[in-house]
Amino acid sequence: MAEPLLRVTDLRKSYGASWAVDGVTFEVDRGETLAIVGESGCGKSTLARCVARLAQPTSGSVRLDGLELATLSRRRLRPLRPRFQLVFQDPSTSLNPRWTVEEIVREPLRLQGVRGDVPGLLSEVGLDPGLAGRHPHQLSGGQRQRVGIARALALSPDLLVLDEPVTALDVSVQAQIINLLLRLQEERGLGYLFISHDLAVVSAVAHRIAVMHAGRLVETGPAEQVLGRPSHDYTRALVAAVPGA
């Protein structure tokens, strides 16, 4: 059996005496989207930060193509970082306001010492390359998130960790970004770990869903099964709370 792109095993993250992530295990294959869903405060974003190694797990394993990431030092992690990138929730705070679009998208390339096609990246995410000289405040929310996605794609990753990537956007713009993510996944074969509290959004993007409650995964399965025939009481409550459910 082929090794999954991402394998997370018994991952834990504590803050003092409290477990934000408590024994979480899951896998993500190439070209697949696993959505982690749950209410605010359940540990979703902490999980995303641990997988992306923006936070150090307390214990457990995070393997990318069989390579252990959880215990690596920053120096040893650096050459692997191009393979997994994070797209943040709010592009208005995740982009440097002093930099132009060109500088923002080129920064990961500069850090890794490689060349890249910034105009090509902008075109790939649906932006006019002529916007390269603008600053984030001169762009719409949807355009800013496209810049964030272009930055994440610059080093040709295998995995994107998407932490509530459309929550800060208007509903009409959400659909555009979701369609962009679906197209990029098909074209690049990307694996997505998609963090969200919005089951309507998740239903449009996820192949599988893992439901998180109080730091633990309480139900995991194909998206249509989890949304259509939930087995856990907490999942049933989440589904029942969706307008029109």
From TrEMBL:
<keyword id="KW-0067">ATP-binding</keyword>
<dbReference type="GO" id="GO:0005524">
    <property type="term" value="F:ATP binding"/>
</dbReference>
<keyword id="KW-0813">Transport</keyword>
<dbReference type="Pfam" id="PF00005">
    <property type="entry name" value="ABC_tran"/>
</dbReference>
<keyword id="KW-0547">Nucleotide-binding</keyword>
<dbReference type="InterPro" id="IPR003593">
    <property type="entry name" value="AAA+_ATPase"/>
</dbReference>
<protein>
    <submittedName>
        <fullName>ATP-binding cassette domain-containing protein</fullName>
    </submittedName>
</protein>
<comment type="similarity">
    <text>Belongs to the ABC transporter superfamily.</text>
</comment>
<dbReference type="InterPro" id="IPR050319">
    <property type="entry name" value="ABC_transp_ATP-bind"/>
</dbReference>
<dbReference type="InterPro" id="IPR017871">
    <property type="entry name" value="ABC_transporter-like_CS"/>
</dbReference>
<dbReference type="InterPro" id="IPR003439">
    <property type="entry name" value="ABC_transporter-like_ATP-bd"/>
</dbReference>
<dbReference type="InterPro" id="IPR027417">
    <property type="entry name" value="P-loop_NTPase"/>
</dbReference>
<feature type="domain" description="ABC transporter">
    <location>
        <begin position="6"/>
        <end position="239"/>
    </location>
</feature>
